[in-house]
Description:
By secondary structure, the chain is mainly β. 10% of the residues lie in helices and 30% in strands.
Amino acid sequence: MFNAFKKKHDRTQAGQEDRVPPGQYVTEKFPVLHYGSVPQYTDLHTTWDLRFWGEIEDVARLSFAEFRALPTVEVITDIHCVTRWSKLDTRWGGVQFKELLKHIPALKPSVQFVIAHCDQGFTANVPLEVLLEDEALLAYMFDGQELTPEHGYPLRLLTPRKYFWKSAKWLRGLEFLSYDKLGFWERYGYNNHADPWKEERYAE
Length: 204
Ligand SMILES: Nc1nc2c(c(=O)[nH]1)N[C@H]1C(S)=C(S)[C@@H](COP(=O)(O)O)O[C@H]1N2
Ligand SMILES: [Mo]
């Protein structure tokens, strides 16, 4: 069902320590972290959609059925939480962000940032260029199974090369902007750039 998409990790040939950013430890577990409660969904076909607005040729939405009909890929990548756990070789399935862009009205050339909007008001800001990378997914499968509610069912972002807080769970909308606008954790004091390899954990 999923097209094989396995970008060889830059560091797979090296030892594990070269895959673990400074100040992180590796866990086999999959901790759950978020602010607030886990949203409950009943009939996704009638109550769920994914909306697009901002610097885009037209506002748009995809229904649950339309979104699930988009081509999918599998991505294997490492995730790094700012609370210091890292999990290696996590396996995700979903729609590549750059694939999604083929199915919605064109972005204006001015777009440089994307704000992920989630159920219950959570937001995360990500530079467009990060989401254009091969590993950037709108993910709904983890380890071959549908995402569980606490990990973001029915849809989350998977944001490459950033601390995991930019991988927004319970995604419902994408806003396209020419300028940057801080998201939830970024306003709360996390570092806007969020590069684990530079330990960009907190704002100055
Ligand atoms: N909607 C939403 N998404 C969120 C968060 C949140 O509070 N709300 N927290 C982020 C943080 S801080 C982390 S570390 C990851 C955790 O994802 P997990 O629970 O699947 O491990 O989700 C991110 N996505
Ligand atoms: Mo986090």
